[in-house]
């Protein structure tokens, strides 16, 4: 079989359709949440220095400011906003955990699927190299050479240090 530079016309695969539906649902989740913050070098020091403050401390300060408005004098702390943030954190922590589990599982599933077909492809490559050594194996040897270039390995074998 001669190699051709022509590629088949693009068709939408079942995997692409599934991925598109998945992405649409992710976009819906983004829309549901509203604007989200992304890490940025200008805000990282601020976040790093303040995100470890205990939630109980924030709740206690909110209660204290509500009980004694004189504590709100610097106008730097809104107890209603603080309670809203605490409610947001409590509500979305399980969701964040699920998203993290989903991401880990998706990435591992992708690696596993690739590993399965890669294992089969490597076996075929080794068979092609073997069959290419036969007298009538020139065409297969050519295919094995193409496979080797795509694999990106020079074909050098490692020698054990004990030799």
Terminus-to-terminus distance: 42 Å
Mean pLDDT: 91
- Compressed to H and E, one letter per element, the order equals HHHHH
Secondary-structure content class: mainly alpha
What's the total count of β strands? 0
Share of helix, binned: 55-70%
Q: What's the gyration radius in Å? A: 29 Å
Could you describe the largest sheet, including whether it forms a barrel? Answer: none
The proportion of strand residues reads: under 5%
The count of helical stretches stands at 5
Describe this structure in words.
It is a single chain. This protein has 163 residues and is mostly helical. It has a domain at 53-151. 66% of the residues lie in helices and 0% in strands. The protein is built from five helices and no strands. The longest helix has 54 residues, at 79-132.
Task: Lay out the secondary structure.
Elements: H1 14-33, H2 44-50, H3 55-67, H4 79-132, H5 138-151
């Amino acid at each position: 079989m001669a190699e051709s530079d022509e590629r088949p016309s693009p068709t939408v695969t079942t995997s692409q359709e599934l991925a598109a539906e998945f992405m649409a649902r992710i976009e819906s989740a983004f829309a549901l949440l509203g604007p989200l913050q992304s890490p940025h070098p200008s805000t990282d020091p601020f976040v790093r220095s303040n995100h470890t403050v205990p939630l109980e401390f924030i709740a206690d300060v909110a209660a204290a400011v509500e009980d004694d408005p004189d504590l709100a004098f610097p106008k730097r702390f809104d107890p209603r906003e603080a309670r809203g943030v605490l409610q947001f954190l409590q509500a979305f922590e399980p969701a964040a955990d699920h998203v993290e589990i989903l991401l880990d599982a998706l990435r591992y599933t992708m690696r596993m699927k690739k590993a399965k077909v890669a294992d089969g492809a490597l076996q075929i490559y080794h068979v092609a190299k073997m069959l290419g050594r036969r007298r009538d194996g020139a065409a297969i040897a050519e295919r094995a050479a193409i496979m080797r270039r795509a694999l990106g390995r020079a074909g050098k074998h490692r020698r054990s240090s004990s030799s």
